[in-house]
Amino acid sequence: MEKLSNHFYGGYVLSNNKQRLPRSYRPSKVGIFLFEGPPRDPLHQSPLSGIPPINASRAGPSEDGPICLLIDRMASMASDIPSSDKKVPKTKAAVTTRAENGVEFVHVPGWEKLPWLWHGFSTRVGGVSSAYGHDDLNLGLTADDTRENVTRNRELLAEAVTGAAGTPIATVRQVHSDVVALATEVAPGPVCEGDGLITDRTGLLVGVLTADCTPVLVADTKRKVVAAFHAGWRGTVKRIVENGIGRMQLELGSQPKDLVAAIGPGIGPCCYEVDEEVFSEFGSQFGYARDLFYEVGARMHLDVAEANRRQLLDAGLGTGNIEMVGGCTKCQPGLFFSHRGENGRAGRMLNVIGVRG
């Protein structure tokens, strides 16, 4: 074995003269190595995670010091490297509906054929809040807005979607997890900590809050079961949507062939710049991870909506039963709240679905 004079990151050998990320993910020589002990990022000295199982033989010490292990999985892991040749897909514009009370929300094309179904991805248009602009529909209990405003805004959204301001909305205390809860009754506050809700109860909306993360709504066309999932990058890596559909099957008897799903407005690959930690996490979990990343200049961008579409397919949904409604939250500040676009000080959208009472 020859001695190595290269840095290590995420399972790849990187030559010293390729420090610019993300191009530095491209190994310049044949061989993938793993340091003994907890591997660390040489650029930032942070621990790395997600290294897959290996069948390794010992190599000699590199000039950088640590003993290395030669990994036999070079071909499969190298295929995960993002390519600069891919063009970032454009996020299609979301088509909104304006209710009689002035609330503007996104309706899923084709779902009007399900007369028993309520649903809507909210926007920031048509509310009573002034903390983030004028007449904003902030639906999250943030530090900048009042509870009275948020309560009134939720009533306005419920009225726009269901026709009645008093329709209850069940939510969860979101923590970027894979936890999905069953909503069986009306609760005065969040049902629990988690990032997904399912229900077959009539007259109840279930919803998740977003301000860049991706919302996913699912409906069982046969058993009249509905679900709402909050899928940021962490929840997506943890397979929140795939786990949630499993819960729909286990708890309420749903079959994937009967499900329809809609992926709502979130930050698009045009705007969602991520770091090497995110790349490593996705690469450790998904064989198709390479397809989700794009190189934009010296940066990587991630397509979270596509990641969740892939999870829906893996859960058994047909391609024709998945709707991408579009809308980039950062690109369209007049229509959506964006945590990134507003430097961390933003309101929240609420994405709801329910079985008509």
- The biggest beta sheet, please? 6 strands, mixed
Classify the helix fraction into a percent range: 10-25%
Contiguous runs where pLDDT drops below 50 for at least 5 residues:
1-79
Structural class call reads alpha+beta
Query: How many DSSP H or I helices?
Result: 6
Query: CATH H level of the largest domain: which superfamily?
Result: CNF1/YfiH-like putative cysteine hydrolases
Give the strand order, joined by hyphens, for the main sheet. 6-7-8-21-13-10
Structure summary, number of beta strands = 21
The structural domain count equals: 2
Element-level helix/strand string:
EEEEEHEEEEHEEEEEEHHEEHEEHEE
- From the alpha-carbon coordinates, what is the Rg to the nearest angstrom? 22 Å
Give the N-to-C terminal Cα separation: 70 Å
Strand content: 25-35%
Q: Mean pLDDT, rounded to whole units? A: 82
Please describe what this structure looks like.
- The protein has helices at 74-78, 147-162, 233-237, 240-252, 276-285, 304-314; strands spanning 6-9, 12-15, 33-35, 56-61, 67-71, 96-98, 104-106, 117-122, 125-129, 169-170, 180-182, 196-199, 204-210, 214-220, 225-231, 259-263, 273-274, 293-296, 299-302, 322-324, 349-355.
- The protein is α+β, with helices and mostly antiparallel strands.
- It has two domains: 6-78, no CATH class; 96-355, 4-Layer Sandwich (CNF1/YfiH-like putative cysteine hydrolases), CATH 3.60.140.
- The chain has a six-stranded mixed β-sheet with strand order 6-7-8-21-13-10, covered by helices on one side.
- A hairpin with a 4-residue loop joins strand 14 (214-220) and strand 15.
- The longest helix has 16 residues, at 147-162.
- The protein is globular, with a radius of gyration of 22 Å.
- Mean pLDDT is 82; it is low at 1-79.
